[in-house]
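agent: user wants the full assembly modeled, not chains individually. Plan: 1) parse entity lines 2) check alphabet per entity 3) run joint structure prediction 4) return tokens. Steps 1-2 passed, four entities, 789 residues total. Proceeding.
--- entities ---
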Amino acid sequence: MTSPDTPTPSAAGASASGGAVRRPTGTTFTRWLGAAALVGMAWLVLFGLVLSPDDALQKKGVRILYIHVPSAWLAYLAFIVTGVSSAAYLYKRTRSLIWDRIAGASAEVGVLFMGIALVTGSLWGRISWGTYWTWDSRLTTTAFLFITYIGYLAVRGLGGSHHQRARRSAVLALLAVLEVPLVHFSVRWWRPLHQQESVAEGKLDDLMLFSLFVGIVSFTLLYVWLVLHRQRVLSMADAVDDKGLDGALAARRAEQEVSS
Amino acid sequence: MTLVAVARLVAAKDLRIEWRSRVVLNQVMPFAALVMILFAFALDNDAALTRVAPGLVWLAALFSMLVVVQRSFAVEAADGALDALRVAGVRSDGIFLGKSAALALQLAVLEAVLLLAAVVLYQVDIGAGSIPLLLVTFVAATLGLSFVGTLYGGLASGASGRETLLPLLMLPVVAPVLIGATRATEAALGTNGASSSEGWPWVGLMVLFGVLFGAGGTLAFGSLVDE
Amino acid sequence: MAGSLEVGHPAPVTCHLTDAIGGTTRVGFTEAVSVSSVSVAVVDLRGVVAVQGGFPVLAGADLAVTRGEIVLLRGPNGAGKTSLLRMCAGLLPIERGEASVLGHDLTVDRTAVRRRVGLLGHANGLYGDLTVADNVAFWGATVGASADEIAASMRRMGLADRLRDVKVGALSAGQRRRTALACLVARRAELWLLDEPHAGLDAAGRDDLDATLRDAAASGATVLVASHELERAGALATRVVEVVGGVVRAPAAGGEVG
Amino acid sequence: MNQWPYILVSYALTLGGIAVYTWRMLRRARSMAATVSEEDRPWT
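--- prediction returned ---
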């Protein structure tokens, strides 16, 4: 990411004089949200690393599941959100750049969590299956989704006006929605006999299931927190571009004084 | 002008460019043949080559297609023809279908050569019984590949100088075609004892793929390119 | 002059240009293009701001051009002449301000105006691997020009015999420019947007170009020319404006030509 | 096979990844908020 043009002091507004802003993208709501997510994550780490008993089948591998399952779930949730907000942007009645920013923020967070899910998943696979990777349809689809959204983020960075960026990436996100089921089903047909790595297979006790539940909830809260903040940063970046335009316009018009 | 007329005009223009320049014939085709030879070096096992020949054919087709797609949009970008097309009010869905059609034709020739190379180099036998499935497979796969190639090629070239994005955007999307075409070709050729009845579901998948991306591309191409 | 008028602009072209501005159905097109008022300016820009790569190439441009005018845009490099022409052709998104070209509001839809304008930019928009005849035929066909019209446009730019089957990639810069102009003539545009059209042309080519533009204007088309060839283009123009710093203004005193 | 290294690496990568991403985002937020006026941050 390149830093945007330095805006003129006049565009900086009142907050600039005070130096750093105390809560740049935070609100009371996000503060509570973040706190709740942190508490949940703390419990998750404590339980996962210390308290959890070993699973009868998966032994210690179950400890990875406490973070792997929530991140995978989150990644898929993030991409669904990207798809839905892209559609909301393209739909004329709801066209607003806020949908584009949510789509972008969500895709970015989704890529992060999908990367985490892939790494933790293969580490878990090494423990449980003795191998980092199998050509399971779920795994393979996830990997393709990961790469597809890396491409999506690259296209977002191509430049152009805000609405150009928004339209291009929204269309791309919808094409990705088209792609995912096709990849999923083709891989599934290709390797019909795959190992089911379902959570339900193991004999998890109540506390373990509860912790997994806590993981999913706290990761979701974390996701909402991240997307809200990221979306606000994107909104500020767009605003900086717009304000930068005012300064650039003044400079551009001043060219004629020089030349005449 | 109607959609079909525009598509025909654009396709004829692209094919005429190839007819006059022979870039695909003189440059991409030797490259594709070379890839087939390099596979043999890498695998270094005659039996293995015959076994994986269908996959190699399609892999080589994918790589060659990347080159053809880049060429297809390089001629538009070289002297501002893409802008000129926009100013001429040439409808973008027509451009999409026209360029896809031209790409499909060139690709079909390429794939035929690749298949021939597999017969010669990898000891692949094509019986008369395998020809119907083989033919349908090649048509379905070529259409799907062309739609996706044109769609993402346009996106990559529309954003000036980002042609390097093309493989990253395109290859994940065409994965189903690679899987489907390879399996269907295996079924047609009876590789690894596959029977031809196993091939038809894959053809169905590829047809679905082609229809979805043909329709999606027709709708989306304008938004991805026309800016 | 009169002879070249007949060659370059066969009757259908003239009639189609007149009709389009008058608000009736365009010849050769299925849809009807209605223009609300006959007196509407062909180009009407108010405070247009356009941005390219984060830089405001147009910084509040105002310009009104009526039908049949030949307007010369002059100004230093990087002043925004090219951007102004590209904006009028619907190629540049408009960030702020109002822009109406041939009755189309470009802030709402930039695509509808395109088929009615002809743009000759810095790039020629030609396919180097195709012959001159191929190129003119293709670009003519995009607007449904007949074979006669296409042949006439090539004759007009002196490409009819020796050069017609030469690949554009093998031509000199001036010959390529001629080819691009022939394509433009074949496009039968109502608004001609030319960016440095004289560049690379020899004396005969310039004369051909000027005659073509005069004929176009006489038959109802409107022409915007950006040029550094002030004397030649000034003699051609009915009006001169100056583009500086992304805005348009009347030329400084003494700068009036023609 | 000792499974603890795999588990610890999983947790470290997960928490580390999230932390690095969050930290970089908040840093950008801070620097950007200093240049953007109040009305461009409607959530405050």
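agent: reporting back. Helices of chain C lie at 2-8, 11-22, 81-88, 132-142, 147-156, 173-187, 203-218, 230-236. The mean pLDDT of chain C is 80.
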